[in-house]
Amino acid sequence: MKVRYLAAGLLVAMLAVAASTASGGTSRSHATKIVVWLQNDAQNGWPEAVALANRNFKAQHPDVDVDVQYQSWGTHLTKFDAALAGGDAPDVIEMGNTEMTKYMAAGAFKSLTQSAFPNSATWLQGLKGSCQFNGKLYGVPYYAGARAVIYRTDQYKAAGIKSAPKSLAQFMVDGQKLMKKYGKDGNYSAVYFPGKYWYYAMSFVYDYGSQIAIRKGGKWKGTLNTPRALAALNQVKRVMKLSRASKTGDEANPQQALVFAKGKVGSFVGNGWEWPYALDTKVGNPALDGKMNAYPMPSHLRGKFMPTFLGGSDLAIPVTTKNQGLAADWIKAFTSTASESEIAKAGNIANTTKLLSFNASNPKLAPFARAAKYSWFVPTSPNWTNVENANVLQNMLVKIATGRASVRAAATSASNQITRILNTGA
Amino acid sequence: MASVAESGVTPASRRRRFSRRRVGQAAAPYVLLTPAAAVIGLVLAYPLYLLVKMSFEKYGLFELIRHKGRWIGTANYASIFHDGEFWHVVLRTLVFTIVCVSLTMVLGTAIALLLLQVSRWVRIALTTGLVLVWAVPVIVAVNIWRWMVDYQFGVANWTLTKLHLGDFARHDWFANPWTGFGVFTLLIVWGAIPFVTITVYAGLAQVPHELLEAAAIDGARPWAIFREVTLPLLKPIFVILTSLSIIWDFQVFQQIWVMLDARPSSDYYTMAIYAFHQSFQISEYGLGAAIAVVMVLFMFMATLIYLRQMLRTGEVN
Amino acid sequence: MSSVTQIAPTPVAPAVTRPRSRKRLRKAGWNVLGLIVLAVMVFPVYWMVSTAFKPGHDILSYTPQWIPTHPVLSNFTDAIHQQFFWNAVKNSLIVTTVVVVLSLVLAFLAALALAKFSFYGRKPFIVVILGVQMVPLAALIIPLYILMSRVHQVDKLSGVIVMYLTFVLPFAVWTLRGFLLGVPKELEESAMVDGATRFGAFVRILLPLLGPGLVATSIFAFIQAWNEFIIAYVFLHTPEKQTLMVWLASFTTLRGTDWGPLMAGATLCSLPVIVFFVLVQRKIAFGLTAGAVKG
What is the pLDDT at residue B264? Predict the structure, then answer.
């Protein structure tokens, strides 16, 4: 008996010690601290921007602490949902721009006054659209990424390609020249194009004048099996023939810039940060410096660019916050021109067209800034995230890439699925 | 050996001690159980109640923010059972579980037996190696395996080609769900073997030396000794390990999820992925709760056989 | 490990002695098999460790590099210098130690009750223990969060400890019960005839015999607590409170995964488990020699 009680007591004591040494914060909410959830890209990518924002915020509110907590992309929405359910969501949260609509529709964010935020008159249209719902503003654009063709200048020269292609047709001809010169190596790709790379593939659909879905009379309808979209997808299939990348893989696993750095890739379609990443001293190949350049992907119409997917993030204020004013002030500090300049320096597109010129003056960022001017975005339906989560587009592309279904059959099946999912609960 | 007479109790004190002992005896199991039961009960009672309640409600993001679900009766369950895909997923999960559990138990036990046959240093090396395998976080293990079977950079393709077992250059293991699940089976069995081996080995180590020696002196052959003496003593452990393996393998999620970059095609849906995809990914937590309840019921039925055996062997007379 | 029992001890009768060379050959054969099994099982782990020593640009390679040609330590230094590493180590150690100790004690007591007593509520409790393990964790996250939030256990190590306990206990009770059932009743009974109380018999006879079972359970509890991710990620908010698994996740950003430091970090994370195992592994072969009833 005694031994048991002693043991139990000892253990309870240990537990109490552990718990008390570990729990630092109080659970009462004073306006002495705001919590900010940023993705971990900022942690390693542009910590100066965060530091700058915190300094300016502190100058404005000396008695308020800022706790920036970094999240991972894969599971951050589960954590956010749990926090919302428990009533202790952060005061500011970074959301992917394709994730915004669903949460805006559910009333997760406080509505904001556009004019209160820096550079709001010149916000990138592509990002601003993702922050608006039913005529109100629920988020602030944070940063974006635009894709362009990154290529090996030496390989182009050796294959007899004199200048960057001005049309899709020329792009294809150039691709074939590269394959003729280097394609004997079974691992070589003139254009590295993994099967699930839908950001690039859908650009063709928008370039040919179609879209993923349209809204007619209050209902959504998938349009991937319309004639123009089919023409685009058939073209995508032809481009895929210039690639030896995995037909069932995507562009992040393995990271395409790193595959490019291995030397058996002529070109790939990547974000601004992927160029320096290929040259990274640790994981890339610094020897390629001087042998690389980039150009916006040409349209099938000569002299024009193909629209690029404007991926990016927005900052929002969850509706559960008790510090709306402070949260807004922090966002203002973080999206100030100075802070956004730091973000742009890291290879991103800042949230305002004012800073596009900053990118334009840097030869490594200029092509992406040019490409960013022509962009497309996903259908702004609250159910769009469900389409992404159901892998509708990826599955369609894999079927096309592997030849398991005809382009028409794959596109029709995808279109029907999109129509069904986007209209759920409507 | 002490004789009973030495307890030296008078009739009066014996009666007193008997009744106190009896009460103590009756209360003992409850006292022993309380701490564990309290922890489990306090932590899980309310969430389980919420889970079941949510399974009868529409509980999406909208409801979640307002902390209130909308009652819709059995609509969630109806939509599950009417989904044609659901039954495919159930069948797939069942087959996958059976294959994984069988391989794990057979190989795990075989290696445990092997541990008894090898020299001391090999035994230490092997058990340490197994614990090393066990210690690797699942996410890391999956990523290692994914690399090993990578389309262009994987060791598997390169090795198989070099061994002239065919042309595996740029062989996509996940293009075909059969080969894909083959890879997953290997991965899961590989990760599950250490636990089974070490537990069975611990069980083997517990077999009384005297019994084994007695049987050997009686002239029994090694295999007979194993069958007649060791196996019956190990039976409870086997039953436990099998039932646990069934429960765990039925819920396999992370390996498939991470290996396929959080974007598995429907050919690869197991129950847990189906649940996640149908509900949590789209924040339909009510539907997710219903699927979880259905999963529990399925697992319950699957382990029912073992459950009944457990209760029978555990009888105290 | 010298007290490990052998299933097939050589018979004592002098007329039946096996030739020593054949016995040694068989032993060598088993050893070779054991080493092959070791090599096959450990290969992926070897790949993880060797990757940790490879410079970044050698990690992705068209022909696999079996042994790093230019091993570097930079991945390890990068990993350790990643923010909050030492905090994460401290938090993981606290959480895991408390969970292992508490789960062993509570599970042993509960397993005793289930294995050695017949009482009202025994069967329902067993059913509950089994049933609880069948509920998919993902489904429980939101309800658990709602509960923890109400009792102010969000962003606290104590909350995480209690949740881990809840998930480890059913297994631990289940397994220890199995080990208890495997102990021959004669030992217990003979101890009680010696005059020991029932509980005294438990502690003095069963506990030492349970050495192997306790070790297996403790390793399980250790690894469960050490390697758990989703609960730690969802319930621990401030970076200073986070555990090593959450810290490991910080190596994956939108820009893909930093493989070198991740593998280095993963290797570092695996070390404490090995240390723990080495410390307790001698107990697995404790066997009957200690605490056994002498006839």
Answer: 85
**Residues B132 and B178 occupy one common structural domain:** yes
Q: Would you call C51 an interface residue with chain A, using a CB distance cutoff of 8 Å?
A: no
**In this structure, are A98 and A40 located in the same domain?**
yes
Of A18, A69, A262, which has the smallest distance from its Cβ to C158's Cβ?
A18
Would residue A6 count as lying in a domain? no
Residues of A near B (Cβ–Cβ under 8 Å) read: 8, 74, 77-78, 81, 84-85, 87, 102-103, 105-108, 186-187, 196, 244-250, 252-254, 259, 319-320, 385-386, 389-391, 394-395, 398, 402
Structure token digits, residue A221: 């309808």
pLDDT in tens, B16-42: 555 666 666 677 788 888 999 999 999
DSSP H or E segment with residue A376: strand A375-376
On chain B, the residues whose CB falls within 8 A of the CB of A389 are 277, 281-282
What structural domains does chain C harbor? 77-290 (1.10.3720.10)
Indicate if B188 and B121 belong to the same structural domain. Answer: yes
Q: Which residues of B touch C63 (CB under 8 A)?
A: 158
Q: Once rounded to an integer, what is the mean pLDDT over residues B78-101? A: 93
DSSP labels, chain C: -TT---SSPPP--TT----HHHHHHHHHHHHHHHHHHHHHHHHHHHHHHHHHTS-HHHHS-SS--SS-SS--SHHHHHHHHSTTHHHHHHHHHHHHHHHHHHHHHHHHHHHHHHHH---TTHHHHHHHHHHHTTS-HHHHHHHHHHHHHHTT-TT-HHHHHHHHHHHHHHHHHHHHHHHHHTS-HHHHHHHHHTT--HHHHIIIIIHHHTHHHHHHHHHHHHHHHHH--HHHHHH--SGGG--HHHHHHTTEETTEE-HHHHHHHHHHHHHHHHHHHHHHGGGGG-TTSSSPPP-
Chains with 3 or more CB pairs closer than 8 angstroms to A?
B, C
Mean pLDDT along residues C38-66: 90
Return d(Cα A374, Cα A298) in angstroms, integer.
11
Here the ipTM equals 0.81
How many A-B residue pairs are in contact by the CB < 8 A criterion? Answer: 77
Determine the structural domain holding residue A156 and report its residue range: 147-309+377-422
Chain B residues closer than 8 Å to A103 by CB: 61
- Non-local (6+) Cβ contacts of C222 within 8 A are C96, C99, C100, C273, C276
Nearest CA in chain C to A34: C238
Interchain proximity B153–A254, CB inside 8 Å = yes
**DSSP state for residue A306 in the 8-state scheme:** P
- Asked if B65 and A106 come within 8 Å (Cβ–Cβ), the reply is yes
Torsion of CA B50, B51, B54, B55, to 10 degrees: -150
β-pair type (A308-309, A375-376): parallel
pLDDT of C47 > 80? The answer is: yes
> CA–CA separation, C152 vs C159, rounded Å?
9
Which of B35, B263, B282 is opposite residue A386, by nearest beta carbon? B282
Q: How many domains does chain A have?
A: 2
Residue A190 three-state SS: strand
Q: Which of A108, A249, A250 sits opposite B61 (nearest CB)?
A: A108
C70: CB partners within 8 A, 6+ apart? C54, C55, C58
**pTM for this one?**
0.84
Same domain, A161 and A101: no
